[in-house]
Specification:
The protein has helices spanning about 20-30, 30-40, 50-70, 75-80, 95, 150-165, 210-220, 235-245, 250-255; strands at about 20, 85, 105, 110-115, 120-125, 130-135, 175-180, 195-205. It is an alpha/beta fold. The chain has a five-stranded mixed beta sheet, with helices on both faces. It has a three-stranded mixed beta sheet with strand order 1-4-3. The longest helix has 20 residues, at about 50-70. The radius of gyration is 21 Å and the shape is globular.
């Protein structure tokens, strides 16, 4: 059964399940204060511009891997990296890749219906499902997962792995990022952008997810707005602007508290 997205704020007195996306879990990890304003009070962060070029790459990747899915054959990228797998065929693939539906699981201790849309799934001869996520960039260096800001990518994969296991699938601990890096060292553009595609493995650990869901539950049940975190640029902007609007140049204490 698929549950569809509704823009509903959390109500501590409501006994119905509350739908919580993978991205909102990550928002809580980044900044509980921003998360609370979003899910409890209905004040969301300003939306950024859509990454339409990245979306185009994702769409083309899906079309390409779907060709091999239909044939039941390994994609050349899998062969190049010695990965014994083929794109996964499943009746729910289209649902699992659809935004606002995706893979869903009800976490009963928190009464949260968790969902997230996967990019792709592959499967090994041992029927282990591999979570695959498409990424694209344009950097003049080797692509790795070492940068701290890519921790969100890793959590993303771990949530997908957890969701699929909740749906009874045998899921491999190691997932893969299909990373397309656009070449910027060509002498001319000539109306086309060339990419080098790299397959990056990541071994996930979903042990943090269920404890984090209980933290989220506690946060949403509280009437107290969480404190701002020093790493949140959104909270910093709001505090700094409020301080200036009060005709007072903000100090470090104003921005982030005495600590």
């Amino acid at each position: 059964m698929a549950y569809y997205y509704r823009k509903v704020l959390y109500n501590p007195k409501d006994t119905n399940f509350f739908k919580l996306s993978r991205s909102k879990i990550d928002l809580f990890v980044e900044c509980p204060r921003c998360f609370y304003f979003d899910r409890r009070l209905g004040v969301s962060r300003p939306q950024g511009f859509p990454f339409t070029l990245n979306s185009a790459v994702d769409t083309l990747f899906k079309k390409e891997f779907d060709i091999y899915r239909a044939k039941g054959e390994a994609h050349p990228l899998m062969k190049a990296y010695g990965l014994d797998a083929v794109p996964f065929k499943h009746p729910k693939m289209d649902v699992w890749r659809e935004n606002f539906t995706g893979v869903q699981a009800l976490h009963r201790p928190s009464n949260f219906l968790i969902f997230g849309a996967v990019d792709d799934l592959w499967v090994t001869p041992k029927n282990e499902v591999i979570v695959v996520d498409y990424k694209s960039t344009a950097l003049n260096k080797e692509i790795t997962l070492d940068e701290e800001w890519k921790d969100g990518y890793k959590r993303q994969m771990e949530v997908y792995q957890w969701l699929l296991r909740q749906n009874g699938l045998q899921v491999a601990d190691t997932g893969y990022f299909v990373y397309a890096n656009g070449h910027t060292d060509r002498p001319t553009f000539d109306g086309k952008l060339e990419f080098k595609v790299t397959l990056l493995p990541y071994t996930g650990n979903a042990a943090w997810i269920e404890p984090k869901l209980m933290e989220i539950k506690e946060c949403l049940n509280s009437d107290k707005i969480p404190e701002a975190v020093t790493t949140c640029e959104y909270c910093k902007f709001v505090k700094e602007r409020m301080a200036y609007e009060g005709d007072k140049k903000p100090t470090q204490s104003d921005l982030f508290g005495a600590g």
